[in-house]
Amino acid sequence: MQREAGLYGAIRVSLPDGEREPYHYDYDRTIILNDWYHKSAYEQATGLSSKPFVWVGEPQSLLIHGRGRFNCSTMDAATCNATNPECAPYTLTVVPGKTYRLRVSSLTALSALSFQIEGHNMTVVEADGHNVVPFVVKNLFLYSGETYSVLVTADQDPSRNYWATSSIVGRNATFTTPPALSVINYYPNHLRRAPPTRPPAGPVWNDVAPRLSQSLAIKAREGYIHAPPAASDRVIVLLNTQNRIDGYMKWAVNNVSFTLPHTPYLIALKHRLLGAFDQTPPPENFDPAHDIYSVAKNPNATTSNGLYRLEFNSTVDIILQNANSLTPNNSETHPWHLHGHDFWVLGYGEGKFDIEKDPKSYNLVNPIMKNTVPVHPYGWTALRFRADNPGAWAFHCHIEAHFYMGMGLVFEEGIDRVGKLPSSIMGCGKTRQFTSP
């Protein structure tokens, strides 16, 4: 939960000298989107770990590049001063007629977002570092951990400024979290000149269709296609569910809620510390009779810190299957993030995954490679990756509270290829024996 404590930022990776992007732009800008809570990560973690369960709730604000909105009338004036110049919206100045590459990142703790610029189209050209077949959107949907590049041309009336907004989708935060506002300042208008219009309303929060449509539209651009293996060596199907364990609220994968051991996996595996974590691997599938559209009749689950052992350089398919939470008629959006790899996104679907029928619809021609991908409500997402990076790698929901509550797992591959581990990483759990007094 370090992002909730303020640890976040963006690293821009440039192309090697002599290489160019397959699209033109005049200026390059970075925009970070995130949500902001008044409670600390420690307070939130305490509530998530308590009986009775205390949910973190919706964020108090959404931020665009560190600036947001909050109703100061609900707080002491000395604590909250909306007239402070530091509270002014983030402003991006543009030159009329020029095209801007906006590198937009979502580093939210919880919220799925829609980002839009009043009166302007955005052309999506890159996702998670890979060039995509360009497509035009009015609203760019982003899930925690995702990054996109969009091209925006300053081609509107230059005599005024325009709103850029970020609003929550996937959760009903209509009455709790106001959309974030920023200003697109057309030079030479004054930076603080407010747009003459009302900010555009975001899309309906529970309309899944346009979000699924964007996911399906993201394909690798010709000339930048990394062809996936034609088949996989292993298929792991992961059911995402909300559960209870001894009265505590948890999230689970295939009815197992993930817990972290005291000893880091990489050290335990390298030094064969077999007692450091559960040696029984988690299940690779779920009960086919599970009704994904209903609250589970038996919400109980187990905990484990076991991991999935992958044969080095093998090809693995992951099917992420969404289901109903413990709230009737509710299935949440989960952005899943894999450490150490990019994966091919082979497809999305609605309803329960059919292992006989649905793989026939996989995109094996030009699938995009990503490191973070959503699984939509009551739907499934299919991924393929090659286990070619020696180590122990987390795969988890990028929503901070959900990972904290057990929605994650670990893959191990090629540990024998990992070199000698530095002494500086020793000291936790059973690794104390490797440190000098």
Radius of gyration: 23 Å
Uncertain stretches of 5 or more adjacent residues: none
Beta strand %: 25-35%
Give the number of helices: 4
CATH fold name of the largest domain = Immunoglobulin-like
| Structural domains: how many | 2
**Major sheet:** 7 strands, mixed
Looking at the structure, what is the overall shape? globular
The CATH superfamily of the largest domain is identified as: Cupredoxins -  blue copper proteins
Overall strand count: 25
Q: How far is the first residue's CA from the last residue's CA?
A: 32 Å
The top level CATH class name of the largest domain? Mainly Beta
Task: Report the helical percentage.
Answer: under 10%
Summarize the structure.
The chain has 437 residues and is mainly β. It contains four helices and 25 strands.
Account of the 3D structure:
With 437 residues, the chain is mainly beta. It is built from 4 helices and 25 strands. It has 2 domains: 2-217, Cupredoxins -  blue copper proteins (Immunoglobulin-like, Sandwich), CATH 2.60.40; 234-434, Sandwich (Immunoglobulin-like), CATH 2.60.40.420. β2 (61-64) and β3 (67-68) form a beta hairpin. The longest helix is centred in the middle third of the chain and has 9 residues, at 209-217. It is globular, with a radius of gyration of 23 Å. Its EC number is 1.10.3.3. It catalyses: 4 L-ascorbate + O2 = 4 monodehydro-L-ascorbate radical + 2 H2O. Belongs to the multicopper oxidase family. It comes from Kalanchoe fedtschenkoi (Lavender scallops).
